[in-house]
Structures are given as C-alpha cells and as structure tokens.
Amino acid sequence: MKYEGRRKSNNVEDRRGMSVGKVGGGIGGIGLIIVVLFTLLSGGGIGDVISNVGNSVQQTAPQSERPYISSEEEDELMEFVSVVLADTEDVWSRIFKDNGLTYEEPTLVIFSDSVQSACGVAGASVGPFYCPGDHKLYIDLSFYKELKDRFKAPGDFAMAYVVAHEVGHHVQTLLGTSQKVHALRNKVSEAEYNAATVKLELQADYYAGVWAHHQKNAGYLDVGDLDEALTAANAIGDDTLQMQARGYVVPESFTHGTSEQRKRWFKNGYKTGTIQGGDTFNAKAL
Ligand SMILES: [Zn+2]
Which keywords are on file for this protein (predicted)? Predict the structure, then answer.
C-alpha cells in the first residue's frame, strides 16, 4: 500500500515502554485473568472484541516508564498504521455522512508487552483488540512479525487488514450492533452466543473490505495487497487455527468464522464498498 507522505492520524497514542507494572493481584490481576480467558475461549485468534470487564472502568494500574527504543522497522510500521487509521477515519466519516450519521473517530493505542484498557489489562499475547468501553484499538506492533512468522501472512496490507478489522468493531459499536450481540451473553446457550459472535466478526471483516475498496479506488493499492489481506483472513479462520492447535475442528466453538467465510466477507465488502450488503445477521447463508 502506498503510504509515504500521506496524512497520519492524530488519534494514535504511543504507550510503548509504558507496560503495566507486574500484574499480581489487585485490580490489574483480575483484569488479566478475565481478558486472557476470554481470548482463549475465542480461539486465541486475533481481532477480538473484548467486552467490558464488569460494568465499571478499572482504575489505572501502576505503570513503569522506561525509555523505549524502537527499531527503524518499527518506526516505519508506526507510520504505516497511522496512515491506515487516518484513512479509515476519512472513509468511515464519508460513509456515515452518506447515511445521515456522524462518525466518531477511535483512538489507536500502540503498546509493548502489556496495556491497561477499559476492558482490563491485556498482554501482547492476546493479539490486537478493540475495547468498546473506551472506543480504542490496541495493537502491539510485534504482531506484524507474528503475522509473518506464525500465520504466514506477510506484507503491509495484512497489517492494514488487521487495523481495518478492529476499526470495523468500532463501527459496529457506534451502530449498536456489538452491544446487541454482547447482550446475548448468558442469555442464550454458548453455541448460540458463539454463532452470533461469528456474525459480528464476519461483519468486521466485511467492513475491513469496505475500507480496502476505497483504497483501491483512490489508487493506493499495490499489486498483491488484496492477496496479503486474504492470506491473513485465511490464516486466522477458526477452522484453520483449531486444526493447527488440536488437529480437529469443533464448529460450535467457532467465534470468528472459517477461513473461507472470513475471506469471502472481506471480498464482499471489497466489491461493494458500502455499509449495505454487510448484514451478516440476516444473510441467508454465512
Ligand atoms: Zn474481531
């Protein structure tokens, strides 16, 4: 993706080197357990929406500040995700306006090791996530390496897809869709709740595709970018992850959708470029 010289978002919070102090008991400890558990339940994949832990925003845990020395590659990546975020702001502001709505820009928090969010304390191992409680996206830039090495999904546009997917969860929060799904928790069976979560995740993939559509139209995509995003979507499908982890799949436990579904919904959004057509909740088939 062409990003040199393009507008960078002002809504990026650099919290690298400010990892939350040793988590051992207290509020931070509870948060950590809940967040990690939730992530494990959702397959240990990426792109999770972490619902609020309890109803109240947690107090900030003590933070240890030390100078953070970033590599050149990381600085470049920081610039890249800032451009991606800026572009999601432009695209979604326009789409919301066209639909008579006002887009509220989210904040992207870049962290290292661990971070305090309104959804609790999270370690880098949870992968990128969106917290509806504070309207912030949280990404540890080391995830870029993980995409490349563990998920075999290299390329800058794989990372752009991840950011755009998390922004998709923000869009769902602004539209009230996430709240409806999270309200089902403890009201329906686990299998039913998981099925609703899959729809939410596939819709976030669709929204990521919508964003990519506008990148293409503006002439920012490089050859191979679409494939990079699709490779990433394929690599983090529930079936693929479960097969790698256990050697078999349990469809009722899917929370993000299969590789095929994730790719397809991303492509659907990429084709249309509009918010309409992304209603995974009423789609005849997922
Ligand atoms: Zn997600």
Answer: Membrane, Transmembrane, Transmembrane helix
Q: pLDDT digits over 41-70, tens only?
A: 343 344 466 654 333 334 444 455 667 888
Domain boundaries of the chain, sorted by first residue: 12-275
- Integer Cα distance of 248 and 66 in angstroms: 44
Q: How is residue 189 written in tokens?
A: 């069976």
E strand or H helix at 139? strand 136-140
How far does the centroid of ligand 1 lie from the alpha carbon of residue 66, in Å?
31
Paired tokens of 129: 């996530």
pTM to 2 decimals? Answer: 0.86
Q: Sign of torsion, CA 151 228 38 108?
A: positive
Give 203 Cα–ligand 1 centroid separation in angstroms.
Answer: 9
Backbone φ and ψ of 122, nearest 5°: -130, 145
Distance of alpha carbon 110 from alpha carbon 241, whole angstroms: 25
H or E element at residue 39: helix 26-41
Distance (Å) from CA 47 to ligand 1 centroid: 4
